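Hi Q.,

Before the meeting this afternoon, I wanted you to have the FE2/S2 (inorganic) cluster prediction in hand. No need to reply - just skim if you have a minute. The sequence and ligand are here:
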Amino acid sequence: MRKLCEINDIPLGQARGFSVQGGPILIHRSEQGVRAYRDACPHLGIDLAWNPDAYMDLENRHIQCSTHGALFEPTTGECVFGPCIGQHLTPALIEIKGSEIWG
Ligand code: FES
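Predicted structure with the ligand bound:
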Protein backbone atom coordinates (compact mmCIF):
# COMPACT_ATOMS: atom_id res chain seq x y z
CA MET A 1 0.00 0.00 0.00
CA ARG A 2 1.04 3.61 -0.51
CA LYS A 3 -0.28 6.94 0.64
CA LEU A 4 -2.94 8.18 -1.80
CA CYS A 5 -3.87 11.53 -0.27
CA GLU A 6 -4.93 13.37 2.84
CA ILE A 7 -8.57 12.92 3.81
CA ASN A 8 -9.06 16.69 3.47
CA ASP A 9 -7.88 16.54 -0.14
CA ILE A 10 -11.32 15.11 -0.97
CA PRO A 11 -14.02 17.76 -0.37
CA LEU A 12 -17.08 16.58 1.54
CA GLY A 13 -19.62 15.09 -0.85
CA GLN A 14 -17.04 14.56 -3.58
CA ALA A 15 -15.00 11.68 -4.96
CA ARG A 16 -11.51 11.38 -6.38
CA GLY A 17 -9.95 8.72 -8.57
CA PHE A 18 -6.71 6.86 -7.87
CA SER A 19 -4.68 4.14 -9.47
CA VAL A 20 -3.75 1.32 -7.13
CA GLN A 21 -2.47 -2.17 -7.53
CA GLY A 22 -5.42 -4.02 -8.98
CA GLY A 23 -6.76 -1.10 -11.02
CA PRO A 24 -8.48 2.25 -10.71
CA ILE A 25 -10.57 3.10 -7.69
CA LEU A 26 -12.64 6.05 -6.56
CA ILE A 27 -12.75 7.34 -3.01
CA HIS A 28 -15.80 9.24 -1.75
CA ARG A 29 -15.88 11.36 1.39
CA SER A 30 -19.04 12.28 3.28
CA GLU A 31 -20.17 13.08 6.82
CA GLN A 32 -20.50 9.31 7.24
CA GLY A 33 -16.85 8.74 6.41
CA VAL A 34 -14.67 7.64 3.54
CA ARG A 35 -15.66 4.84 1.14
CA ALA A 36 -13.67 3.32 -1.70
CA TYR A 37 -14.95 1.38 -4.70
CA ARG A 38 -13.50 -0.10 -7.85
CA ASP A 39 -13.96 2.35 -10.71
CA ALA A 40 -16.14 -0.01 -12.69
CA CYS A 41 -19.87 -0.13 -13.26
CA PRO A 42 -21.31 -3.46 -12.05
CA HIS A 43 -23.14 -4.25 -15.28
CA LEU A 44 -20.55 -3.52 -17.99
CA GLY A 45 -17.39 -3.03 -15.98
CA ILE A 46 -16.44 0.23 -17.64
CA ASP A 47 -15.02 3.34 -15.95
CA LEU A 48 -17.63 5.52 -14.28
CA ALA A 49 -16.22 9.01 -14.85
CA TRP A 50 -16.19 10.91 -18.17
CA ASN A 51 -13.37 13.15 -16.95
CA PRO A 52 -10.80 12.64 -14.21
CA ASP A 53 -12.56 12.81 -10.83
CA ALA A 54 -15.97 13.56 -12.45
CA TYR A 55 -17.75 10.85 -10.47
CA MET A 56 -20.69 12.72 -9.01
CA ASP A 57 -24.06 13.78 -10.38
CA LEU A 58 -24.88 17.49 -10.61
CA GLU A 59 -26.25 17.63 -7.07
CA ASN A 60 -23.30 15.70 -5.62
CA ARG A 61 -25.80 13.25 -4.15
CA HIS A 62 -24.90 10.14 -6.09
CA ILE A 63 -21.96 8.57 -7.84
CA GLN A 64 -22.93 8.45 -11.50
CA CYS A 65 -22.02 6.31 -14.49
CA SER A 66 -21.25 8.94 -17.11
CA THR A 67 -22.10 6.60 -19.98
CA HIS A 68 -25.64 5.59 -18.98
CA GLY A 69 -26.54 7.78 -16.02
CA ALA A 70 -26.82 5.01 -13.43
CA LEU A 71 -26.79 6.44 -9.90
CA PHE A 72 -25.12 4.84 -6.89
CA GLU A 73 -25.49 5.60 -3.19
CA PRO A 74 -22.07 6.83 -2.06
CA THR A 75 -22.25 5.22 1.38
CA THR A 76 -23.32 1.73 0.22
CA GLY A 77 -22.39 1.58 -3.47
CA GLU A 78 -25.91 0.40 -4.32
CA CYS A 79 -27.29 1.32 -7.72
CA VAL A 80 -30.60 3.14 -7.15
CA PHE A 81 -31.29 4.16 -10.76
CA GLY A 82 -30.29 2.81 -14.14
CA PRO A 83 -29.60 -0.51 -15.85
CA CYS A 84 -27.86 -2.11 -12.87
CA ILE A 85 -30.40 -1.13 -10.23
CA GLY A 86 -29.99 -3.19 -7.06
CA GLN A 87 -26.40 -4.13 -7.88
CA HIS A 88 -23.45 -2.68 -6.01
CA LEU A 89 -20.12 -1.08 -6.79
CA THR A 90 -17.31 -3.35 -5.61
CA PRO A 91 -15.67 -2.10 -2.42
CA ALA A 92 -11.95 -1.40 -2.65
CA LEU A 93 -9.48 -1.87 0.17
CA ILE A 94 -8.10 1.31 1.69
CA GLU A 95 -6.70 2.18 5.10
CA ILE A 96 -7.09 5.38 7.08
CA LYS A 97 -3.92 6.23 8.96
CA GLY A 98 -4.52 9.37 10.96
CA SER A 99 -5.35 12.02 8.39
CA GLU A 100 -4.06 9.95 5.48
CA ILE A 101 -5.73 7.57 3.06
CA TRP A 102 -3.64 4.59 1.95
CA GLY A 103 -4.47 2.13 -0.76
S1 FES B 1 -21.82 0.85 -17.58
FE1 FES B 1 -23.40 0.34 -16.23
S2 FES B 1 -24.68 2.10 -16.07
FE2 FES B 1 -23.06 2.63 -17.40
